[in-house]
């Protein structure tokens, strides 16, 4: 029993560099305070461990895990620390400490103002205090995410300003404004691609030759950075945060270019990919993700030979299950995908959803299609020829009857990724 056993203490001090613990007492101060308490109460300290590490994740602190091992090997049987949250801010490490107490390996935990031993009330209090520390961490994480989302909804991207903009603070909010010196040069890159047919390598040679941006970047601008600039929607006033999340926001900053100029540049940058010999082509490849687990949707073809010898090709789309091997999402045929996609576009157009982007190229093709359609109807003396053409009607006609190029262009007007669930198409994942 504890009363018959000498208590040998390990003094454990910890401080994280993360923002949630910037107000916590420093490691040196913790050791000083607890050493003074040990002298005052004649506590025997046989080891001192100190580390700068977050306690949010279980089993992630090397010296804490070493201390548990030493307790198990009976190097000492008590812990002296400044406060319970120095030991644990997660359920896993807290459970390890309580297990040590239950196994009589850990006889006492002594803090600056409290003591915990193998007593139901004291163990319960220890668990409450450490669980409260975990609750504070969890709430803080939610508040940070909520703050970031709120900032995005206000139109301010929580990232360093891209080339052509500079950061500044106003009323406690970090914002961006145009860099009057650099912005015109960045805009010129877009114009050279759209109007003069410059490639990324052409721009790099020009930038290196004239020393553009070198003073600001501190070095020559790599080709990859040039392409990142040309593909950044931030310059026309929209941004996605986090990247790849599908969460798009309208920026409150002053756009550097127009959406039309941006779309023109993207078309110039698009390089047609010729399939390799034997490589299969699937129309809806890279368009969808799984609504259930978020993994990519891939396609595969199957052939069926009938009794009369006719051979039929069927295309199926399905989740890769790379993110969740137990994902229950079912296979869906390309014909169902096509019909559901048409219904999705009709619905999105009717509800004025911000999921369709009718590019200048699509508008141009729609006008040509409308003229031909109205001319045919007029020649057949069909009255009430419509002077307008719905995008959904054009989309349906092209997806069913269009060429491969026409289909790819009309699909480029959809904001992706779209999501598949139970053979239906959604604009957002389930979670």
From TrEMBL:
Transmembrane segments: none
Signal peptide boundaries: none
SMART domains assigned to the protein according to its UniProt record, in alphabetical order: Resolvase
Residues in Resolvase/invertase-type recombinase catalytic domain copies: 8-155
Gene Ontology molecular function: DNA binding; DNA strand exchange activity
CDD domains assigned to the protein according to its UniProt record, in alphabetical order: Ser_Recombinase
Domain Recombinase: 162-275
Pfam families: Recombinase, Resolvase, Zn_ribbon_recom
Domain of life: Bacteria
Record protein name field: Recombinase family protein
Species assigned in the record: candidate division WWE3 bacterium
